[in-house]
């Protein structure tokens, strides 16, 4: 059962910006840290950015630090990923998901693939 739904992806030129959104059910959003993950064809999935419920603890992959910002609106139960200065290597399907309990710290985060949403495609052209 899909608990989240991603949106906001699209085709942009290198250097452009996109904002991804993820809506989640009450039971998911109100009880879990959340994160964004991505996977490009032929590549392993990777955690992009994750945040605790309060936003106090965040994780960013080294490749996106300084360019992406994760945030969440706990009233609207929406997770965001503001992506700036996009690069072709950012091209991937982006997913959001609740995190494995206790998995989030400054250096890593994890989510079970079964809890990912359907994803939203981000394509960055050069």
Give a brief rundown of this model.
It is built from one helix and ten strands; from the N terminus they run βββαβββββββ. The chain is mainly beta and 126 residues long. The termini are far apart.
Query: How many DSSP helices?
Result: 1
Radius of gyration: 13 Å
Oligomer: single chain
Largest sheet, strands/sense/barrel: 6 strands, mixed
Listing every helix as H and every strand as E from the N terminus to the C terminus, the arrangement reads EEEHEEEEEEE
Low-pLDDT regions: none
Give the neighbour order of strands across the main sheet.
2-10-9-4-5-6
Architecture overview:
The structure is a single chain. The protein is mainly beta. 3% of the residues lie in helices and 44% in strands. It has one helix and ten strands, in the order βββαβββββββ. The strands form two sheets. Strands 2-10-9-4-5-6 form a six-stranded mixed β-sheet, with no helix packed on it. Strands 1-3-8-7 form a four-stranded antiparallel β-sheet. The longest helix is centred in the first third of the chain and has 4 residues, at 26-29. It starts with a strand and ends with a strand. 35% of the residues are buried.
């Amino acid at each position: 059962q899909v608990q989240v739904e991603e949106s906001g992806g699209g085709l942009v030129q290198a250097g452009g910006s996109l904002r991804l959104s993820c809506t989640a059910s009450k039971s998911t959003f109100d009880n879990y840290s959340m994160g964004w993950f991505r996977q490009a064809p032929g590549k392993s999935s990777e955690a992009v950015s994750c945040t605790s419920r309060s936003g106090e603890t965040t994780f960013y992959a080294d490749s996106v630090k300084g360019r992406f910002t994760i945030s969440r609106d706990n009233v609207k139960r929406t997770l965001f990923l503001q992506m700036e200065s996009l690069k072709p290597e950012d091209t991937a399907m982006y997913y959001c998901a609740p995190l494995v309990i206790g998995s989030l710290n400054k250096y890593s985060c994890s989510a079970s693939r079964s809890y990912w949403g359907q994803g939203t495609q981000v394509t960055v052209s050069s």
